[in-house]
Design goal:
mainly beta, disordered C terminus
Length: 340
């Protein structure tokens, strides 16, 4: 598929002296409407992600350069897909404001009907957005308000929340008054939780207790507007050096940030208008897979960047990351109302 090489000049900074770096950017999937939530699953050597408003989950298998897509019938908004620990072909998915579990062989064009469906956000009009598991397998998922009917592409603010879901299905609301819950990452020592609420136009850090899941002492570590960075912060991942890679919606770039100093280290540009999220993958976990969107683009925009919405593989970043963490779920068929 299409490939381009770019020379990424470092941001101007008197304290930042790094030679321009060559990145290789390659399109690996067809263009989707709203690609989101990439998760690298080492057991199947595959990248899983969603086409959010099309009710689809997707798999890209790099070794065979194969792309598979499946509908979850009866659902329009499928917001996340995360494999379940020790259960082959079983996934937690976001279904509007709820979570559920589907079975998918990674090849068929439909999944099983969702089971163990559990309402997470009871606020009318809200839906779930990004989700990810921490190092213990505890699921974290955030929500957001509905899109404004008279202002497409804009959403009601401070109606969402960030939740954690224990393996037994217990839901804990961790942060309230969230506008668009998005990127999540944990520091290498699991003592810091990094978080993006998009309309704050910043990346925040919280002290994190991995035993209880408690979040305290939230603070801004990188402010996009103060740093004159275009775009809306969206999904993110962390590399083995502890740097964050933050996708920016309404922009063509992803940011590499040192969260300890609040320094923008570099940017990677992609041939897309809406960059949504990123995850490291590949056999050496040194390939950065970036999801993008082509949501509500004009015909002129589509003509200029026809692959906005595709997944891109970025290589030669000099960074490696971590495989996705599967979700730990205790399934109790006799007690379906209280489990996910």
């Amino acid at each position: 598929m299409s490939t381009l090489t770019q020379s990424a000049p470092p941001p101007s900074s008197s304290s930042f002296m790094q030679a321009p770096q060559q990145y290789n950017v390659e399109r690996v999937t067809p263009a989707l409407e709203l690609g989101e939530g990439p998760h690298w699953h080492s057991p199947t050597r595959s990248l899983y992600f969603v086409d959010l408003h099309q009710g689809k989950i997707n798999r890209y298998h790099p070794e065979s350069n194969s792309f598979f897509s499946a509908n979850i019938e009866g659902y329009n908004d499928v917001t996340l897909i995360l494999p379940i620990e020790d259960k082959a072909d079983m996934f937690v998915v976001g279904l509007g404001p709820s979570l559920g579990i589907v079975q998918w062989d990674g090849r068929s064009n439909t999944t099983s009907q969702p089971k163990y469906e559990k309402l997470v956000d009871e606020t009318p009009g809200n839906r779930l957005n990004d989700g990810k598991a921490d190092a213990t397998g505890r699921l974290w998922v955030g929500s957001m308000g509905s899109e404004m009917a008279d202002n497409p592409g804009h959403y009601y603010k401070r109606r969402g929340s960030l939740y954690s879901v224990e393996p037994d299905g217990t839901i804990n609301k961790r942060i309230s008054n969230v506008s668009i819950s998005n990127g999540m990452a944990w520091s290498l020592d699991n003592k810091v939780f990094y978080y993006v609420d998009t309309y704050k136009f910043a990346v925040e850090a919280y002290d994190f207790d991995i035993t209880t899941g408690d979040l305290t002492n939230g603070k801004v570590i990188f402010d996009l507007k103060a740093n004159k960075v275009a775009g809306d912060p969206d999904g993110m991942t962390i590399d083995k050096n502890g740097n964050l890679w933050v996708a920016c919606f309404n922009s063509n770039h992803i940011l590499k940030i040192d969260p300890n100093t609040g320094t923008l280290l570099t940017t990677v540009q992609l041939p897309a208008y809406q960059v949504t999220s990123a995850a490291f993958g590949g056999p050496k976990l040194d390939e950065l897979y970036v999801t993008t969107a082509g949501y509500q683009l004009t015909e002129a925009q589509k003509a200029k960047r026809p692959y906005s919405g595709a997944v891109f593989r970025v290589t030669d970043t000099g960074s490696t990351g971590f495989e996705g963490v599967p979700v730990k779920v205790h399934l109790c068929p006799e007690n379906q109302l209280h489990t996910i």
